[in-house]
Amino acid sequence: MANVIFLTLEQILAIHFDQIERYSGSHGVRDLPLLESAMQRPQASFYGEDLYVGIFDKAAALMHSLILNHPFIDGNKRTGTVATAGFLHFNGHDLKLTQKELVEISLLVESKKLDLEQISKWLKDHSI
C-alpha cells in the first residue's frame, strides 16, 4: 500500500471544534488517552504487519474507535464520521452520501450493529 496519510491529533481536535461550532454541543475532550487510542488504532501493527490492511479497514477502525470510545464531551458521532471522511479524502477516496446516510452510518456504528468488516465495506461502497 502506498504511504498512508493519518490524521493528527490537531486535525481531529479541529474537526471536533468545527462540528460543535456548526451544530452545537459542548466543546472539549472527555478522555485524551481514549482519543489518542482511537486515532492510533488504524496504524496498529503486530510483529511489523498492519492489523488493518486496506485503506477502508483503516478508516473503519478510525470511525469505530472515535464513535465508541466517546473521547469527547459531545459530538463523538459527528467527529468520528467527519474525521473518517477526511482520512479517506487525504488518501484519495471521497465519500459520496447524503446527510441522512451519514447520520445512519454513525448511528449503526454507535449501536454496534456493524462490525469492522461491515463498516469497511460500507465505506468502500459509498466512496468514489
UniProtKB/TrEMBL annotation:
Q: Which SUPFAM superfamilies does this UniProt record tie to the protein? A: Fic-like (SSF140931)
Q: InterPro entries, from UniProt?
A: Doc, Fido, Fido-like_dom_sf, Type_II_TA_Toxin
Q: Which residue ranges does the record assign to the Fido domain?
A: 7-125
GO molecular function term, any single one: kinase activity
Q: Which PANTHER family match?
A: HOMOLOGY TO DEATH-ON-CURING PROTEIN OF PHAGE P1
NCBIfam families xref list: DOC_P1
| The protein, known as | Fido domain-containing protein
Q: Which organism is it from?
A: Candidatus Daviesbacteria bacterium RIFCSPHIGHO2_02_FULL_36_13
